[in-house]
Amino acid sequence: MIPSIRQTSPVQALYLAFINALRDNGFRGDLSPDYANRTVLATDNSIYQVLPQGVIYPRDTADLVKVVKLSQVQRFRDIVLSPRGGGTGTNGQSLTDGLVVDTSKYMNQILEINVEERWVRVQCGVVKDQLNAAIKPYGLFFAPELSTSNRATIGGMINTDASGQGSCRYGKTRDHVLELRTVLLDGAEWTSSPVADNELEVIAQRQDRVGQVHRLLDSIQRDHADLIAAKFPKLNRCLTGYDLAHIRDEEGRFNLNNILCGSEGTLGFITEAKLNLLMTPKFSALVNVNYRDFNAALRDAAELMKANPTSIETVDSKVLNLAMNDIVWHSVSEFFPPSASGEKIQGINLVEYTANDEDELRADIKKLTDQLDQSGLDNDLGRMGYSLAWGNDAVNKIWGMRKKAVGLLGNVEGEIRPVPFVEDTAVPPENLADFIFEFRKLLDDHQLTYGMFGHVDAGVLHVRPALDMKDPEQEKLVRKITDEVVALTQKYNGLMWGEHGKGVRSEYAPQFFGELYPQLQRIKAEFDPYNQLNPGKIATPTEKIELLKIDGVTTRGQEDRKIPVHVWNAYSEGMHCNGNGLCYNWNPNDAMCPSWKGTRERIHSPKGRASLMREWLKQMSERGVNPVAESAALKRSSFLLTLPARIKNTWQKKQGDYDFSHEVHESMVGCLACKSCAGQCPIKVDVPEFRSKFLELYYGRYLRPLKDYFIGGLEFMIPTLARVPWLYNAMMKPRFMQSLLAKVVGMVDSPLLTGILLDDAIQKLGIRYASLENIAQLNAAEKAKAVIVVQDAFTSYFETPFVIDALTLLQKLGYVPLLAPFKPNGKPLQVHGFLKAFAKAADTNATMLNGLASSGIPLIGLEPAMTLAYRSEYKKILGANAPKVQLIQEWLAGQQETLRAQAQQFGTGDYALLAHCTEKTNAVSSIKDWQQVFAALNQTLKVIETGCCGMAGTYGHEAINVDTSKKIYQLSWADVVNNPANKDRLTATGYSCRSQAKRIDNVKLPHPLQVLLAQVKQ
After folding, report:
1. Cβ atoms within 10 A of the Cβ of 776, count?
2. How many CB atoms lie within 10 A of CB 701?
3. Which residue, 759, 875, 859, is CA-closest to 827?
4. Do the beta carbons of residue 182 and residue 271 sit within 8 Å?
5. Distances in whole angstroms, Cα of residue 717 to Cα of each of 169, 803, 1011
6. Terminal Cα distance for the chain, rounded
7. Is 374 helix (H, G, I), strand (E, B) or coil?
């Protein structure tokens, strides 16, 4: 619902009137003037934070035509419009205090693929990796390669004229643009492509905006050709945006696309693009050259370029060490062995070769390795040796690590963190080492730490100085350092903006363009006479209007410093999000982030939730509310004492009283609590952790839904209910009861009790409960083979046969399993914000488990999410007292000798594993552990890459989440589960995953332990 205009300021009233008029004119997309959407889109990957007046999501080009035509009405000529794609910009390109026009939500279709002619036509919201996945079967790909390729949109790439790895071979985005369809501010839709002079004459005769811009650009090119040639640097990464040097292309044709590419949405709305495609090289390899000095790596790059590689990327020791402590290292560690001398590697050059012929590739590699072998460990060159990575799979893993370097730089301890503001300078490659030497001295003189990586073949290096932007004194260094770096790049005949566009840094455009800058202003004025399109960037339409200043735009640090330090620290799990946007990952077969993928709502992403959390804490602090004290008070108060206030507040909420907390709540309850963000985010943003803290406080003011009490209390009630399963199942199974539960409690498709009591089952197996008394009765041989299986409510009561199978398999492997007495784990309580109750449950459970562990017998868990809670949620509240419980595959993988000795009793089999999200993102190596266990017992196990199943504990059983849960399942799991080739091969580790497959597709997926048990010879 759009708020009343009478409740707003004049500026807000104007924008709300514009939004209402759009709706009345038949705008088909989404209109979002709500504070949550505005907050989430107030940041990108830069240091800035600018709150827009609203966000709109057009469905198609027709919607965009409605937007621009309405903006030209006299009443709305002060309306500011800023296009936005993936929001990965590092310079505030898509930030605005006007209206964000986000084309990524709906305009993301691949429209046409022409394999024969090797081109594709796409909408601007298509993500680069999405495009490459679609054309991969044809042996094609779209260059260049970006570190943000899994969330960067084609429209964003065009608007920043993006380049990246391999640009010396493949060029920039504009080198692959064949046609652009653009909506101009007068409502004209124009498809631009290179045109010969006779075609240009015809176009220039038009009396509309299209004709005007063609006449102007042609005259600028003719009148200023010599000055343009002298002024524009001859670099691989030449000036982006309004590129006067390429108004005419290499063949002499007039090409409007070279002006539009890199224009950052300041000239029009690009809606579609026809793109040139390249043949994918069949073979690739990397030579990873190590150095004892980073400057040596930079200097050596020029020498390595003589070997004519496809690309050379460099990484310094800081980035490398961050990668070693990240989830990504598990996939690449084999390619970076420690040096033989034990010296620390200070830099690496990743030298890539590609070819369509394997012999040709090997010959190219041999030339370089022969050169390296002849020089040996040359102290003058600083080389320490090299390693090889052969094949596309190996190479892609290393490039995946390199891509993640951008985000990894933000993953450091403390408040001083590397930030982007001078990070993509470009100089001639032969000048790079000297340039960086001075650059590093500049930063060293300011006593700053920094990380470096980049494209040394193109003379581009990413440098991120570490600052605490919440400190006003450190924030001042942004201006000082930027001015110094600008002077340094000019000294070395380089550019301030080599790759990531200008954005707020456009302030330096007049300094770089010099006497040509007025020509840029003429172009801006012709396209955008009222300065409505992303104003303040690249150029202004008149001298009276200034460009934005790097220290004149609100920064995130300025907003964040309003949050008291003790509050900031208490909610640290979400405070350091730097906006890198990895959680916007397009890939449906990647675990992060299921709620984003299922809704395409940015408020339902880790980045969005972190933004909302910071804003919520800021507002609380501004109103004198201390959330840390509030949380402590809630833990001391009684339920009944706070009930009247919660009833009153909830009634007022239903009457329409506004509270920003409600918008934050909507975002938080949409989280699946799968913890993929905690495992995959380079900054380790942990949404489930700060979500639980928010829910605790929110429900301290408002009434909880009944489902929360049902979910939170089930672990405590289930042992009793299990003794009368007919009663529980009678309440859950009938359709009329399911309908009633959905309406009253908010739960659907609740699982049924098996009716099997573990007490009886383990007695038949001769297995005892774990107790110090029972353990004392074991002889030495039995104790050496003993293992304690820790129960969880899901498998013990809703999947009892699996627990019995697991215990049986352990016996057949020669172990003596003991079953820990059941006690509530408490994770459902933590997920839903019952933090006081969770702390009590965790303490009780930990006391028992630690007591059992004192016997020296290992503890293992069967259900991944519940087991991993012991090393995350438990550890956060209990510290060193958190019990050490291994995943069962982690323990079995360490029993290789025993497993191989028992292998003769197993037949052979070939299986495929569907791993639980929490397990594969927070215990990465444990997935390989399953493969080792299977291999030791004569089985093969392939890991199938999938996203989330959509169940995530009880999420999929909550009525408000059912539709999203099923949509998430369809994105990834449905095709795998229903693929005939996978029949009888699939196995799943997660209870919730198995439940979802059974619920939606009526497919019963066995646990890996059940698969192994079935292979035991009778």
Report:
1. 9
2. 17
3. 875
4. yes
5. 65, 20, 31
6. 66
7. helix
User: How far apart (Å, rounded) are the C-alpha atoms in residues 964 and 956?
Assistant: 8
Asked whether 859 and 852 are in contact (CB, 8 A), the reply is: yes
- Residue 649: predicted pLDDT: 95
What is d(CA 220, CA 522) in angstroms, rounded to the nearest whole number? 9
Give the strand pairing for 189-192 and 177-183. antiparallel
Q: pLDDT at residue 1 above 70? A: no
Q: How far is CA 730 from the centre of its chain?
A: 43
The CA-based angle 822-857-764, given to 5 degrees, is 55
Neighbours of 96 (CB within 10 A): 26
| C-alpha to C-alpha distance for 947 and 941, rounded to whole angstroms | 18
Confidence of residue 429 (pLDDT cuts 50, 70, 90): confident
Q: What is the pTM of this model?
A: 0.94
Sign of CA dihedral 152, 478, 496, 310: negative
Task: Give the position of tokens 């979002």.
Answer: 32
Cα 624 from Cα 297, distance rounded (Å): 53
Summarize pLDDT for 759-813 with one digit per residue, the tens: 999 999 999 999 999 999 999 999 999 999 999 999 999 999 999 999 999 999 9
* Pair 167, 158: CB distance under 8 Å: no
DSSP-assigned letter for residue 938 = T
Instruction: List the single range of 262-266, 434-438, 804-808, 919-923 with lowest mean pLDDT.
Output: 434-438
Distances in Å between the Cα of 648 and the Cα atoms of 163, 630, 655, 708 are: 56, 18, 11, 20
The DSSP 8-state label assigned to residue 906 in this structure reads B
Say what the pLDDT of residue 2 is.
39
- Domains of the chain, with CATH numbers? 5-102 (3.30.43.10), 282-408 (3.30.70.2190), 562-703 (no CATH), 758-1014 (no CATH)
Give the SS3 label for residue 500: coil
Q: Of 318, 334, 319, 339, nearest to 385 (Cα)?
A: 339
Return the SS3 of 32: strand
E strand or H helix at 140 = strand 140-141
Beta pairing partners, 455: 460
Asked if pLDDT for residue 5 goes beyond 80, the answer is no
User: For 848-858, b where at least 16 C-beta lie within 10 A, e where not — what string?
Assistant: bbeebbebebe
DSSP string, 792-819: -HHHHHHSHHHHHHHHHHHHHTT-EEEE
- The rounded Cα 68 to chain-centroid distance in angstroms is 32
**Distances in whole angstroms, Cα of residue 302 to Cα of each of 235, 363, 720:** 15, 20, 73
Residue range 812-829, pLDDT digits in tens: 999 999 999 999 999 999
DSSP-derived 3-state class of residue 463 = strand
Q: For residues 491 and 494, what is the distance between their CA atoms, to the nearest angstrom? A: 7
Average pLDDT in the 85-108 region?
Answer: 95
Peptide bond into 593 cis (omega under 30): yes
Q: Determine the Cα–Cα distance for residues 314 and 459; give it in Å rounded to an integer.
A: 11
How far apart, in Å, are the Cα atoms of 691 and each of 318, 697, 740, 831?
31, 10, 29, 8
In this predicted model, what pLDDT tens digit does every residue of 476-494 receive, in sequence order?
999 999 999 999 999 998 8
Q: Tell me how far CA of residue 199 lies from CA of 193, 206, 214, in angstroms.
A: 11, 12, 11
DSSP state of 601: -
The label of the residue with tokens 């609203």 reads: 54
**Contact between residue 248 and residue 217 where contact means Cβ atoms under 8 Å apart:** no
Cβ-contact 818, 776 below 8 angstroms: no
